[in-house]
Amino acid sequence: MIDNQATYGLALEQDFGNVWRDKNEYGKESIFVMDRNLDPVFSESDYNAGNAADGNKENRSNHYWVCFYTNARNVNALITGAAASSMGLVSRDVINGRPFRRFRPTPYTYSAFTNRDNDSRYDKTFQKAWVANTPATASSLVQSTIANPVTTSRNGSSVTLTKGVDTAIFMPGKEVTVAERQRFKGVKLCSNV
Known about the structure:
Number of domains: 2
Shape: globular
Structural class: little secondary structure
Strand order of the largest sheet: 3-6-7
Number of strands: 7
């Protein structure tokens, strides 16, 4: 395939982020694609009747990689002298995906991205930040609700996240120090490795 890319209609994307771009399921790096069809034998549910906008032929496994960003968390975890304060930080919404965590990358996968300063593949593969979306009310875009903005005390001062602006959860993909946690304007700074 490497020597005969044109024969097979394959090539590497110029921008690695395009591999995961919406509507690029048949991109030039795709070697093997499995679609759903309308045959009830292979249907995942009764909904697979072809009347959905996309014909219901999407691969839904992408929903199972998303972390449980809706779980209540101790926003002051590992910060010396800060009182424990557990709360929901982000409401489930369409933008952040369904928090159905079933799959996770292996430690080997994480370790493959060793030169993150010069290699953008890690940043273009993993979501690292969840922006505050509270208060949230149920709508066609938000499936869960949180009534009040996220506010907590840290280092003797109060921190309130601004909806749609401030990062509520940040997972940099590396271990972080207590000092980094304390300086972070958002409420959560943790490792996802």
